[in-house]
Structure prediction request, 321 residues.
Amino acid sequence: MYRKFYGLTRNPFEISPDPYFFYPTPRHNEALANLNYGVQRRKGFVVVTGEVGTGKTLLVRCLLDSLNRNQIAFAYVFNPRLSVPDFLRYMLTDLRLPTTGRTKSEMLAHLNNYLIARFRRGTTAALVVDEAQLLSWELLEEVRLLTNLETSQQKLLQIVLVGQPELDRKLDSPHLRQLKQRIGLRCRLEPLGAEELRGYIRRRLELAGANSHGSSIFSEEGIAAIHQFSHGIPRLINTLCENSLVSGYVKQVKQITPEIVQEVASDFRMDIPCTTSAPESEDAESRKKTLKALFRMIEELDGASEKQLDEAKLESGVKTE
Ligand SMILES: Nc1ncnc2c1ncn2[C@@H]1O[C@H](COP(=O)(O)OP(=O)(O)OP(=O)(O)O)[C@@H](O)[C@H]1O
Ligand SMILES: [Mg+2]
Prediction:
């Protein structure tokens, strides 16, 4: 509804991860390059981690687009809470391989033949797992065994694991050391710094059709307030920006002020215990409080279940009272 008022042709701050809006911060760029390189150079195992809402699924979508362009076959698992047989069945089905009535060993043999045929044709295949922090220990072990599908020169299946920081902790555990040793590339996404956030907002507005006045839609002070309340987490930036535009339109103001941002932040309870500036300047205790508040907000925005929230808290080492 605000599009015409602000001279836009589409909504700039949707929270769905759309590769069209990809903004290449150095971290995101490096992670995407690692993913592409890892798969195309057949590094075997690539891992990307990052906090909730920092852009992991968006990176996965960008990677899948690039795999499609390069005609690299892939299986994409976005909900890895599966049993081992279901996981294998899902993976083969996604690679368009038949699974009906096959035992696990038959499925693995079929997968092996398929990968060898692709290798002979000079190409490869990838298994991409999003939300990989949810992989059970048993599945992680199974995934490790899949890296044994190789010729004497090359890995036949490229495995990409993308997940929240709990994945790093899982991979660091002693009984997964065999898997850890096989990781060819590993990197981590971080929240955006103040400068990156400014560029991020400008870029999204441009991609949504803003003309030369687009860069003044958010005042400098408004952008500073967005940084303060979002802590540089892209999903929260989008929520603040989108709702500030709606509110600005209702008020018929052409420039988003810090007061508007503050109002939106209060509506979404983003202003609860968020102390001062960036997370790195906070002490451990206030960082914990901030994380708790962020999880609460994200839960409300995403409609996540209480169980998921508890898991997220446990995984981040945040204890609930
Ligand atoms: N570099 C970026 N360029 C453009 N948009 C981004 C970028 N990083 C994140 N976003 C946007 O932020 C929002 C959240 O991103 P995404 O869903 O990928 O987060 P996530 O890390 O997968 O979160 P979760 O841990 O909850 O799964 C999406 O709208 C996405 O488009
Ligand atoms: Mg995600």
